[in-house]
Amino acid sequence: MSTTGSQRLKGRVAIITGAGRGIGFAIGQQFAREGAHVVVAEIDTDVVYQAATDLTALGTEALAYPIDISDLPQMRKMIADVVAKFGRLDIVVNNAGISNKAAFLEMTEPQWDDMQRINQRAVFFTMQEAAKQMIAQIPEAERGNDRQPFSRGKIINLSSIAGRRGRADALHYSVAKSAVITMTQGAAMALARYNINVNALCPSVVPTRMWDHLDAAMAAQNGLERGVWYKARVERVPLKRPGTVEEIAAMATFLASSDADYITGQTYNVDGGSELN
Fold it and tell me: Do 78 and 99 fall within a single domain?
């Protein structure tokens, strides 16, 4: 992959949640190579500052922002602080999330509530607050127009192929990720008059810490050696390999760029053919 990029995002300001590692960090790297200023919105203080340092080394200005994005006052303050520093907000990537397994008959109320709070509720309110800022940036004389002449902002949500159908061992997760798809559609329609593009991605198996934790949980639950469940899961992918964080980042970068100005309300599977809808 190029270390310089084509500068498709030059000068734009992007908040990426959960950008301290994995898919979020890879998106941050690609955005930085394309010229964007990147805000690393991350709850894990062990990685947030190093991630911002690494992105700055790519030639951009990156800001480390420790945050629990499910806390609405924190999230509102973050957007205000980002605008105070950079003067605007152009792109938001809702990447932060959690994943775990829980059998249907054993699901607990805290498991359900935590999943919806982080993977669904936080996505909605981050979209809402980001959109308010993007609309506020439209010149007053143009804000009342029926349609804006060009894209005024990009919102990209990370769903999952688990959101395409129910999962008996992770119903709470599939419900939350399905909600991300429908929220993407609804937000795209609500924000179309402002020419704010809202789209989503559905990754499949990508070797990140989340998948490592899932493999460990399934190994313990089923008496398997580590890696056995993960390998079997990869074998179900038609292309017979996991995806890479760079492949997810490439699609996110496309959707964040002006190349995707006529795309909104769509959810793209980046999954090796695992889902075909």
Answer: yes
Structure tokens at 11: 């000068």
pLDDT digits (tens, 9 = 90+) for 157-168: 999 999 999 988
Give the SS3 label for residue 55. Answer: helix
**43 and 150, same domain (yes or no):** yes
Backbone angles phi, psi at 38, to 5 degrees: -120, 130
Question: Which candidate in 65, 173, 194, 230 is catalytic?
Answer: 173
Torsion 166-172-177-182 (CA) sign:
positive
> pLDDT tens digit string along 242-268?
999 999 999 999 999 999 999 999 999
How far apart CA 215 and CA 229 sit, in angstroms, is: 6
Q: Indicate if 165 and 82 belong to the same structural domain.
A: yes
In this structure, what DSSP letter does residue 261 have?
Answer: T
CB burial string 50-66: b at 16+ within 10 A, e below: ebbebbbebebebbbbb
Report the DSSP beta bridge partners of residue 199: 156
Domain carrying residue 74? 13-204+244-269
pTM as predicted: 0.93
CB atoms inside a 10 Å sphere around CB 5 = 21
> Would you tell me how many other CB atoms lie within 10 Å of the CB of residue 23?
27
CA distance 29 to 52: 10
Q: Say whether 268 is catalytic.
A: no
Which pair of structure tokens corresponds to residue 97?
A: 């999330």
What is the Cα–Cα distance from 268 to 252, expressed in whole angstroms?
10
pLDDT score, position 5: 63
